[in-house]
Write a structure and sequence with these properties.
191 residues, alpha+beta, four-stranded antiparallel β-sheet, 12 strands, 30% strand, elongated
Length: 191
């Protein structure tokens, strides 16, 4: 028996325009994006966009919904909306633990940095940047300090490492310096 599920007419028209087939007889291979995830998928050009074809249906994760695609995923919660994460940024987000990571849920799709050199996604508590210096997350107190200094357009430039342990806390390297957070005092130092 073919698995057919009701979807909004606008989504059906969009999906037909992209040439997507209906679900086949194996429910596990049914991956029509619907609802908010389907709307976002259509907004970024569906299977001809950066995500490619879907690779599975939606599933629950950490209080939200996720749907995987060939080159990334779309994440949704009622608070954050539906946003895509793909490529090197998605790889880093997965490595960190996705929505259960310190970054939590995405709050934007992939964006270009103001200087046009890099790309990034915004998350609830920070961002992940892709640039010539690499792909790194910046979050928490270090992110706040880097923001005060002008992000990648400030004197420190793009992130050049992930956070790492130092004797008194955590440190993160940037192209032209570093920011260190002291876990005992909460003080931030730049160098």
């Amino acid at each position: 028996m073919n698995a057919i599920r009701a979807i909004p007419l606008a989504t059906a028209v969009t999906l037909m325009a992209f040439g997507l087939a209906a679900c086949d007889s194996d429910e596990s291979s049914c991956c029509w994006p619907t609802g908010a995830i389907g709307t976002r998928y259509a907004e970024i050009s569906g299977p001809t966009g950066p995500l490619g074809d879907c690779s599975g249906g939606e599933y629950d994760q950490d209080g939200g919904r996720v749907q995987d695609f060939q080159h990334g995923a779309i994440y949704w919660t009622p608070e954050t909306g539906a946003w895509e994460v793909y490529g090197s940024i998605e790889d880093e987000y997965d490595r960190l633990g996705g929505p259960s990571s310190p970054l939590q849920w995405p709050v934007s799709g992939e964006l270009s940095t103001p200087n046009g050199v890099g790309r990034f996604n915004k998350f609830q508590t920070g961002n992940i940047y892709f640039s010539p210096a690499g792909t790194y997350p910046v979050y928490g107190a270090i992110f706040d300090e880097w923001a005060k200094q002008g992000y990648e357009n400030g004197r420190l430039g793009f992130p050049a490492s992930a956070e790492y342990d130092v004797p008194d806390g955590r440190r993160m390297d940037f192209e032209r310096g570093w920011i260190e957070w002291n876990s005992s005092t909460g003080q931030l130092t730049t160098g």
